[in-house]
Amino acid sequence: MEQCACVERELEKVLHRFVMYGHQSEERLDELLRSVCEIRAQLVAFGVQDADLSVLSQNMTQCCKNIKETVQMLASRHKDIHGSVSKVGKAIDRNFDAEISAVVAETVWDTPERQKYLSESIVEHLYRQGMLSVAEDLCQESGVVIDMSMKQPFLELNRILEALRMQDLRPALEWAVSNRQRLLELNSSLEFKLHRLYFISLLSGGIGNQMEALQYARHFQPFASQHQRDIQILMGSLVYLRHGIENSPYRSLLETNQWAEICNIFTRDACALLGLSVESPLSVSFASGCMALPVLMNIKQVIEQRQCSGVWTHKDELPIEIDLGKKCWYHSVFACPILRQQTSESNPPMKLICGHVISRDALNKLTNAGKLKCPYCPMEQNPSHAKQIYF
Ligand SMILES: [Zn+2]
């Protein structure tokens, strides 16, 4: 964070100089314009009166000189700003380490299959962002073939979200109504919240919408038991329709942050329904990398200084645990207490009949003549009775 603040300070200096430069140049240009206008007026006057030609010529020469000086002065100040801009670049170089090759495992992208995964995640990310043409171009250039069935949900999500951002609820409502049953199974209140917002948009139209609002209230019927309180508030607000909801105790219904909220709820519930993660896997990986890289680079340096390079072998495992925050806790992990290794798909955790859990490799190692003695309790048992468990 210290590094960011340092770069930000330099950036603020540049911005300040830009603003100052803008003010100064405007002031000077106004001044020049004024004197040019004066001369023009004198010239016009010269046509009708018998003015002193030498004075006029002197004024014009002075004005030209002023213009030249101003242009030179502004150009040299502009050059000074370039100096400040390049200082920002230097501050970035000084504060951020761009050389990360030391902590990159060379074999990460060495097979075409892995490169395909990378391209696919980038394409998926672009689809999620609604950058369809960029995604198509990347597919063409990288030779990645994306199935239409993978593309379709993102296209639909984007179309609906785009409309929601423009405060158009219809596409989202159509989607929610056609997926009502599945949304209710997920315990989602999306459809009710969409109807509620539609009702509120009718309320904000004033007394002219009274009949329409009353008729629309029928849509609340399926949600009556679950959202009784919300529905009571909405119906209560109708009393104040004539004087305007904004002047009533119900003015909180018109809060604008509800639109951002409905976009989030829609994204969350639609992703859950489609079996997609709410955030793009690429942005999650990128954010995790940003947090983990500085720690890893420090560790790498320490390892090299102490000359114990064998500690970190890059084999699917980091030399230390890096805390990425609760947001990145997707599932628990299990480390085998016997082998002191994190379990994996090839070496999964196994629950013994006594309830203790060890990894399958440990179980195989401890099995002797078809029998296993639990290393903890120590109950003797048949190793084939152990069951794989999933975290
Ligand atoms: Zn046991």
TrEMBL record:
CDD domains: dRING_RMD5B. Keywords: Cytoplasm, Metal-binding, Transferase, Zinc, Zinc-finger. Residues 153-210 form the CTLH domain. One of its GO terms (biological process) is proteasome-mediated ubiquitin-dependent protein catabolic process. Signal peptide: none annotated. GO terms for molecular function: ubiquitin protein ligase activity; zinc ion binding. InterPro entries: CRA_dom, CTLH/CRA, CTLH_C, Fyv10_fam, LisH, RMD5B_dRING, ZF_RING_GID, Znf-RING_euk. Its main location: cytoplasm. It comes from the Eukaryota. The keyword Aminoacyl-tRNA synthetase does not apply. It is found in: Cytoplasm. Residues 336-377 form the RING-Gid-type domain. PANTHER family: E3 UBIQUITIN-PROTEIN TRANSFERASE RMND5B, MACROPHAGE ERYTHROBLAST ATTACHER-RELATED. This is E3 ubiquitin-protein transferase rmnd5b. The lineage of its organism: Eukaryota, Metazoa, Chordata, Craniata, Vertebrata. The gene is RMND5B.
